[in-house]
Amino acid sequence: MAAAGIRDILIANQIVGAVKIGRLVELADHADPIVCVDNVDNLDELDAAFRRAGKRLRVAIEVNIGMNRAGIEPGAPTLAFAREIANRPSLRFVGVVGWESHATRIADANEKQRTIREAVAALVATGRACVDAGHTVEIVSCGGTGTFPYCIEQPGVTEVQVGGAIFSDMHYLTHYHVDFAPALTVLATVSSRPTPTRIVVDAGKKAMSGDAAMPQPRGVPPVETMKLSAEHATIELQQPSETPRVGERIQFIVGYSDTTVHLHDEIVGLRNGLIECVWQVAGRGKIK
Questions:
Q1: Within the chain, what is the greatest distance between any pair of CA atoms?
Q2: Packing angle between helix 18-27 and helix 40-52, nearest 10 degrees?
Q3: pLDDT-derived band of residue 139, with 50, 70 and 90 as boundaries?
Q4: Is the dihedral of CA 132, 135, 137, 138 positive or negative?
């Protein structure tokens, strides 16, 4: 993103350890990143590295608003942590970040909206308490694709972290109850038809993940079962069918875009059935 000229980058995660913090210091030559923090030892580590480099780093406190993963508890604990940041001259506190993921799987729309409203209200109130204590809060960031229709409605939020919605997938549809048109598919070729009810294609776990939800084939007769192996997907139809035939292709709506995109070198963009662009998956393999 920085190489493409984007300077204002929120890294919605903690950056820990000398190697990764060293990369962060280098990144600050090309962009003005923000990282999430929730630990005093990490504050010391970041402050020392940026002080040695003669630079200043923007940080946002991750607040636990119900996900119960990382984060400081809202209210007084976050306010106390903001004071810790203020005592470190190479760090600049810019706001609060939360993720109300505990609401994603709630099927009842009213209950989901209520849960999101309560969680985000705690984040906003915590940011306001920091302002009242004399801190500058530029960012109140929350949300995700699974809460998108509701988190954008909450007062006091400055941005939402909605990424997967650009693709959508079966996981968001069936588990998170968010019905966006799917835009990301995997194109596979029928490689075998050993029985009138069985279809075997040349795309398995190495091409499309099934960890969060199974991919869904388009344009085939009603499916009884489907399973993924390393190199293949095996579809059992409810009734015998001559089609699709060996050599024909099937589009699969991906099960979960987050764990499918990184399996590929490129994404082919189509509009009205014509190839319009090819995007390289630049972040593939960047996990060190």
A1: 72
A2: 50
A3: very high
A4: positive
Q: Which residues pair with 198 in a beta bridge?
A: 195, 236
> For strand 198-201 and strand 216-217, is the pairing parallel, antiparallel, or unpaired?
unpaired
Q: Which CATH architecture has domain 185-280?
A: Beta Barrel (2.40)
Residue ranges of the chain assigned to CATH 3.20.20.10? 10-162
CA distances from 161 to 98, 146, 148 (A): 10, 10, 9
pLDDT, one tens digit per residue, over 34-60 is: 999 999 999 999 999 999 999 999 999
Tally the C-alpha atoms within 13 A of residue 268's C-alpha that lie toward its C-beta.
7
- Structure-block tokens of residue 207: 């091409």
Q: Which fold does the domain 10-162 belong to in CATH?
A: TIM Barrel (3.20.20)
What's the confidence (pLDDT) of residue 288? 75
Q: Mean pLDDT over all residues of the chain?
A: 96
- Residue 11 phi/psi, 5-degree rounding, is -95, 105
**Segment 159-207, tens digit of pLDDT:** 999 989 999 999 999 999 998 999 999 999 999 999 999 999 999 999 9
pTM for this one?
0.92
CB 259 within 8 A of CB 172: no
Rounded distance between C-alpha atoms, residue 14 and residue 37, angstroms = 6
Check: CB of residue 192 under 8 Å from CB of residue 224: no
